[in-house]
Each structure stands twice: as C-alpha cells, then as structure tokens.
Design brief:
Helix content of chain A: 40-55%
Structural class of chain A: alpha/beta
Distance between the termini of chain A: 88 Å
Order of helices and strands of chain A: HHHHEHEHEHEEHEHEHEHEEHEE
Largest interface: A-B, 54 and 54 residues
CATH class of the largest domain in chain A: Alpha Beta
Strand order of the largest sheet of chain A: 2-1-3-4-5-11
CATH superfamily of the largest domain in chain A: Response regulator
Oligomer: homodimer
DNA sequence: TTGAAAGCGCTAACAG
DNA sequence: CTGTTAGCGCTTTCAA
C-alpha cells in the first residue's frame, strides 16, 4: 500500500526521495534546477529520476507553485481557417518547447461562450492567454482579460494588452492604389464589420487609399459582414449585381475571400478582363483559379511567432508594451488584376 | 491574511463554507450535485456560490479526485489541414459541453515529439486521449496509449483501441470502378504510405477496385509519400511525366490532393479531356478549378462527433469495442472525370 | 546545503 | 444528511 503509491502514473517525488535517501524538498529542488542543491547530488537525483521514468504530475506542480507555465489558453472564434489553425499549430509548437501545453478554446464568436471559456481557463490556472476576441466581447470578459497575461491576436478587444495583428490598413491602401493606378474608378469592397478591429483597420486603409487615389467613397460600394465563406459568397454577389457594376472587387478577409472567389467564378466573369479581383489569405487556396488570384498574403507563422514570444516575455516578467505589434502582409500579384474594361 | 485567501482567483470552497456556516465537504457535495445533501441546502449553496462568483480551481479538483474530466488530450501530426483542424474544432466544441478542456498537441509526425507529448499529457492527468498517431509510432508510445482511454482518429497505431476512420478502402474501390467504367485502363494512384493505416486501407481499396474492374496492377502506376501538399505536387508530376502516360489520376489524401491539383493545373492539362482527376478532401478547396474537381468528400464533422462520443462513452465507463468505427466518405462528381482521350 | 512540515484548493473516506 | 480529517503530488517557507 505504502510502496505502491501513485495509483496511476507511478513514481512520485516521495518515491524518489525515499529511494535516494533524501528529502522530497531536495528532489524537487534538483529537478527544478534550483542552485541551492549540491551539483553532484542534483545530478544524481536527475539521473535517478530519469532512469526511474519519473514524470512530474503537472497538476500538482501547477497547483502548488501557484504560478506555473503548465498551461496557456488559446481562445479563438473559429479554427477552420488557416488564419487561426495555422497560427494555433505554430503557437502550440513554440509553447511546447517551454513545456507549456496549449488549451484550445473555440468560441464560435459567441460572447457568452467566450466568457464561459475564459472563466474555465482561468479556473485551470493558465499562465496566460492568447486571445482573438469575438466581435462583441462582454464587459465581464474584458474584466477577466484585464487581470491576466494576455496577448491578442488578429483582433483587439480594446483592453490594454499587447496584440499581434497583420497591418491591414497599410496593405488595403496599397491595394486600392494598385487598382486605381490601373485605372479603376468603381471599386467594390467586401470586408469584415467595423466592430471588429481588423474590419475597422481595413476600412481605414480603404478610405486612405481612396483619398490618395483622388477617389471618393462614392466610387466605392462596400459590404461588411462577419467573416464566413457563406457571407463572402452572398456579399460578392450583391456587390457585383449592383446597378453600377464595379470594375474591381477587393476583399478584406480570408473567409470572405473564399466565398467571394467562388461567387466570381460562378458569375462566369473573366479575370482580369471583366473584373479585377484581389483576395485575402493564403495564395495556395486560390492557386487553382484561372488566372491565379492576386492575393494579400498574411504571414501566419510570423504572427504566431510574435504572439508566442510576446506571451513568453510577459510570463518571464519582462515588460511588454501593451500596443499593437504589426506584421506586414504582402500583396502578391498573380494576374487577377488589370485595367478596367473599356 | 486569513480572510483574503485565494491570492489569485478569489473565493474558494473554504470561503463559501465559512460564510455559509457549513463544512467544505457539504459545499463540495452541493456543487458537484451529490444527492447526499439536503436539496434546499444544496440549492442555497449553489446560489451563494454563484452570487459570490465562485469558480472551482480545476487543477485542485482534478488533482484531488484522482479521476476527472478536466482535460483531454488531442494529439495530431498536423493541424494545417481541415482533416485535422476541422475535427479539432468540432471535438473541442463537443467536449466543452462536458466542461472538458482540450489540450492540443501537434507532433509534426515526429515519433519522438509524439512520445514526449504523450508523456506530458499523461502527466497532466488527462482523462483520455484522441490520437492520430504518427507514421512510425514508437513502442514506448504504444505502451503509453495502451494504458489510457484512447480513441484513434484517421490513423490507427495497431493498439487495441476504438478508432474513427473514413472508409477509404470502400471509396477508393468506388473511384477505380468509376474510372474503369469510363474506359480508363491506365490509372495512376498517388497516396499515403502503407505504413499509415489509411495509406494501407486506400491501397487495399485500389487493389480491390482494379481486380473488380478486371485490371491488374500493371495498369496502375502508384506513388506513395507522406501527406504534404509538396509531396502531392512532385508526386503528381512524376506520375504524369511517366513514359506510359496515365489517362486518369486518383489521389488518396487531402494534402496530397492540394499539391496534385496544382501540378495538374501547372501541366496545363484540360480536364477531363486530357486527364481525369479525382481528389480527396473538401470540395470547397477545389471549387475554383475549372471544371471543379470530382472529390472524395470526407465527413469531418461526423468523424469528430464519433470520436468525441466514443471517448465520452469510454470515460463514462461504458464498454466500447476496440474496433474501427467507419464513416462513409462520398464521391462527389463535379466534372473532372470523363472518358479517356482517344 | 538539506530536511521537516505546511500548504495549493479540492474531493472522499469515515464517522456521527 | 453533515462534519472531520486525510490526502492528491508537488513546491516552498522556515529551521537546522
């Protein structure tokens, strides 16, 4: 009974301690690389633990050391798009180097679910959070976020926290100028709602682009909706079916782009002769189109690296400025833009 | 000092107990819906806890109740493809209904990483695991898996555990018959390695299809490689560049299909006049192709539902047969297959 | 440098 | 039905 211990995993610190003839404190210290233990003893403990196949109970560890890096929460609205799945994968990879496990929470953009998940995550004593807030974050959720080491991703909730975002404003401006330079004067914009921080950023970019191109908002029909492929499809159809047909369609958002691309194809428009099209996301999605689509390419890996690094710095206690950290997207011309039809 | 308690979260069971004038045991029982507490008291406790904003420390809970459903591990080789990301999302959603959090681990198909992650997961006392094993699972990993409630997904490692898979064998047979019926006699197959359980299943389907079609393996060049889009691209090029050109290309695997589709497009082959093509995965990926590609559609949501349900049943202690649970994929004809060129 | 002992916050015997 | 008392497995004072 006493000898068996650890019904489940097996060896525990007390076993090691007993078998080595030292105290559990010493074992713990040795295992955690405390410098307050004679190096050779520490070494011996570690070797023995290894050989004995010891693996620490992370729950106990995290519970005891009221602070620990055992878990980090990753809270996102969706995961079925690379903007999230690719970043999630990369973050999990980076965090696991530190021995940190990532708890994945999908809110489905539902503020209530989000709030519940955040509570649960905090109840699991996560060391920190990487969060992509839902469109309408509740006051209560913000309160929770304020009191935890948070790094925002893709979207900002308005709290004072560092956040990693793609520099949408700048690239959308570039897109508009690109189109205007080709001669377009009736540009349609399909994007995410302004309540979404990235939606707002893209709209700023749009406005700035139009201004710099000497165009007004009257030159630009816009359609804003939550980022789903479905919305992209219907939104694009709506814009393309307007009385004053646009000669170019600019889509601000990855999922919207998926749907929009399908809508354009279904409409049977020849690119770029009948319509110039710029989409958002990963060019490999659009590689099968003919011609391949000119795409705003967002560096998901870089976003992930930044997010993970910022969080780790916060957890290390290093000061991290609570500001946006922007990653520059790249406008990759693949042939779906050209002069407007005569 | 005594009154403050809970440096971090705030209220704990002892606070509630003290403030309500009952014991912590009673509080715990009430909160966990034990029937061994007077209903009205239980009610009062719950209401008070709610009002007090109590939220249980899941670490403590899980540590104490040596069994708990706090966490479940989700171990997959990749997540940047819907075969995994979509299933992960859906599983996270389903598990969260039970209050279970999902720890996401990406192995990158590396057996060593996989083993380490499994150990760490078990060290976190996960209640169970949903695992998509790497191509070459180590003996040690299998040992770990054998001693935990595991449900396999997409791929089997050979241990006695329930697993949820798409019925690749059957659908690949159907594909071959479809092509043969159109008149094809030189079919190329691009698939995953036979070391992968799904690779083996697809090969079985291939062989059976050829046989039923009265063809031999000499009618069918095959190329097997790890499932990445890159490999799909090079593999397809290789098959298409062979001396005896195939008239049809069948791709068994989602990522391979992505690459293969690009290769076919790059080769400038007209579908289905010059080549018949069947791919694997989500048809929306291939919707932009002209014509859209005939696709083997795998029901990711259904896979996820099954996997989550099986795991939950196992955790409930219900007996679950350690066998494959197959989900039928669907062959959706979208126009990229037709009679072979004359 | 090491050990004894007190928790971390919760659940679960065991009594009453 | 309810309370007392041990733990879960680890870390971390506090002394020695």
């Amino acid at each position: 009974m006493a000898g068996t211990r650890g019904r489940r995993g097996g060896v525990g610190v007390v076993d090691l301690a007993r078998e080595l003839g030292v105290s559990t404190a010493t074992v713990s210290r040795a295992l955690n690389g405390s410098d307050a233990v004679r190096p050779e003893l520490a070494q011996r403990v570690r070797e023995y633990a290894e050989q004995r196949g010891y693996v620490a109970n992370r729950l106990a560890r995290a519970l005891s050391a009221n602070t620990s890096r055992a878990f980090v929460g990753f809270v996102i609205p969706y995961v079925d798009t690379p903007a999230y799945s690719a970043v999630a994968a990369e973050c999990a990879r980076l965090l696991s180097r530190d021995g940190t496990q990532m708890i994945l929470s999908i809110t489905e953009n539902d503020p209530e679910r989000e709030h519940r998940q955040l509570r649960e995550l905090l109840a699991s004593r996560v060391a920190g959070l990487i969060v992509s807030p839902s469109t309408y974050v509740t006051r209560a959720s913000k309160e929770l976020l304020r009191n935890a080491p948070v790094v925002e991703l893709h979207r900002a909730s308005g709290i004072a926290a560092p956040g990693v975002f793609s520099d949408d404003e700048q690239v959308i401006t570039e897109c508009v100028l690109h189109l205007a330079a080709l001669g377009h004067r009736r540009i349609a914009y399909l994007g995410t709602p302004r309540e979404l921080s990235n939606g707002a950023a893209r709209l700023r970019g749009l406005r700035r682009g139009l201004e710099l191109a000497g165009l007004t908002e009257r030159n630009c029909a816009t359609h804003l909706s939550e980022p789903t492929a479905e919305n992209g499809y219907t939104g694009a159809n709506q814009l393309l079916g307007a009385a004053e047909k646009p000669t170019a369609l600019l889509v601000g958002g990855g999922s919207l782009s998926q749907g929009a691309a399908r809508a354009v194809r279904a409409a049977g428009l020849r690119l770029p002769e009948q319509l110039s099209l710029i989409v958002y996301g990963d060019p490999t999605w659009f590689a099968l189109s003919d011609p391949p689509l000119t795409t705003v390419v967002v560096g998901y890996a870089e976003l992930a690296d930044q997010a993970a690094a910022l969080l780790q710095r916060r957890l290390d206690g290093e000061p991290v400025e609570p500001r946006p950290y922007l990653v520059k997207p790249e406008l990759v011309n693949a042939g779906s833009t050209g002069p407007p039809p005569a």
